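task queued by scheduler; priority normal; single chain, no ligands, no partner chains; default sampling; output format set to structure tokens
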Amino acid sequence: MELWAMAQKDFIENKKPNNLTFEVLQQTGINPMFQVNANDKIIDFKNFEGVLESDSIKLYDNLEKIKKENNPIIIQYRDSISGKLLVNQKLYYGDSILLKKLQYYPLALFLIIMLFGLLLYFIFKTNKISEQNRLWAAMAKETAHQIGTPLSSLIGWTTLMKEGRKPEVSISEMEKDIDRLKIITERFSKIGSDPVLEFQNVTSIIKETVLYIQKRSSNLIVFKTLMTNESIIAPVNSQLLSWALENLIKNGVDAMKGEGQIIISIDLKDKSLMILVKDNGEGIKPEIFNKVFNPGFTTKKRGWGLGLSLAKRIINDYHGGKIYIKNSFPEKGTTFAIELQIAS
């Protein structure tokens, strides 16, 4: 619009304007425009569809609307000798239709972002529900699996008693199975609530856990515990910590396909305790290091993907510690690490 006003001024000043001036004056663009004199009388107007020059009322109504949109451009010409103002005009112009449409684009963009956000939320919510469903299904299977072993043993002992056979060890073994059922019940009851942490001897908890799994594992699995006989006191929940260790050790046994060596060791650093569980199985690929602790993730054909995710919840959420893969090498094995704070 400023360029057009300059061309208009050049057209007024020069008796023989150049071709560029005519070219610019012909390119009025798409902006509605009014050229008025000092008394605001309309001299010329352009780019108003359906408005006739004879319809003065409509013309001046449009002029008042245009005045509110932009400041006018002054077109003046003075006599070079006397300095008398010969031409005193104003160019009022409005915004183009395209520019007016652009004003609504931020709103449209905001609505698109909102819709995109709602879509992402829906996808996230759906995945969350799906993950929870997988978790509940895995939890139910894990519960049945945990209860199944001692329950099968109890059924076996009761069957023998019904047949009239009463081995001397039956009562003590049945008591062990009942104690195991109590432990399983207490473990699952603590998931979802804040467990009580007590200062306990972590060394004895580890040894008892290893001994329990060792008795129920194949003779082809060699268990080694590399730790001091001295007591290491830390604020823990013995049942949940034992459960987390069981899951790590069982994961190592599965990785070795029933034959190999499991090494459980302890490393003390200042006020922290590191429990290491090492197997010589097939190893874990680096690209899935961050996935192995996700609920439902498993590389086993018949796995439920719950053991490591439970171990992570027990250590990270309930004990304020860390659990992670310290290292893993193909066909050489994996080392899991648990870090806990110990008593000062």
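post-processing summary
- The CA atoms of residues 215 and 281 lie 20 Å apart.
- The chain has two domains: 2-102, 195-341.
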